[in-house]
Automatic annotation (TrEMBL):
Belongs to the triosephosphate isomerase family. The keyword Ligase does not apply. This is Triosephosphate isomerase, cytosolic. Its EC number is 5.3.1.1. NCBIfam families: tim (TIGR00419). Keywords: Cytoplasm, Gluconeogenesis, Glycolysis, Isomerase. It comes from Ananas comosus (Pineapple). It is an enzyme of class 5 (isomerase). It catalyses: D-glyceraldehyde 3-phosphate = dihydroxyacetone phosphate.
Amino acid sequence: MGRKFFVGGNWKCNGTSEEVKKIVSTLNDAQVPPPDVVEVVISPPYVFLPLVKSLLRPDFQVAAQNCWVKKGGAFTGEISAEMLVNLGIPWVILGHSERRLLLGESNELIGDKVAYALSQGLKVIACVGETLEQREADATMDVVAAQTKAIADRISDWTNVVVAYEPVWAIGTGKVATPAQAQEVHTSLRKWLATNVSSQVAESTRIIYGGSVTGGNCKELAAQPDVDGFLVGGASLKAEFVDIIKSATVKSSS
Ligand SMILES: O=C(CO)COP(=O)(O)O
């Protein structure tokens, strides 16, 4: 099976330049599995991207946490995909639930952003996931399918897309999805891709899990057959992120 384990660290709106240097130095000193076993992508706030890129070990990559939906221009406060490409930033996170819920980004806008970012040569970590209310109403897969469909309707090549399943109720709450809950959604999502995109895309696209992943719970989650890695928030600012990267060996030894 050719899906390389993927670990992303989403720093969200955190850090000072001193803290950034400290975290990067911890990462640079860490002994982790080689790049053919795990792909590691660090996502600091925009303003720290050049600093992180200049200091970070070459086997780790960087991602922006968002970008504008089309070509740059008179869009005050926005950062375009072209600018990220210009700075040599290979990845962008799009559709994070904090942007969907706090900033009102719709499925359609996120689909447009994914399509535009890919067209400019960026790789995309596309986030999907249900709220607690939606899960309790048994709507998890409907919600995740609608979020994924808005992307699938706008792109034809999934090579540069990683899908991050991040249940909103698990984000920053310490309430991690159980390995069975994560596996259930990941396998349904893969089936959705097989039915609605292609079996090749379903088989090759990485589906990673995010929401209260820690050094303590990552191995059990990583052991699930359809969990291809993690998108980590809080723990990516701490030394335990290294343990999460190392959980890739659960896969390579199985
Ligand atoms: O939102 C997340 C990653 O994008 C997850 O955040 P936490 O790991 O802090 O729950």
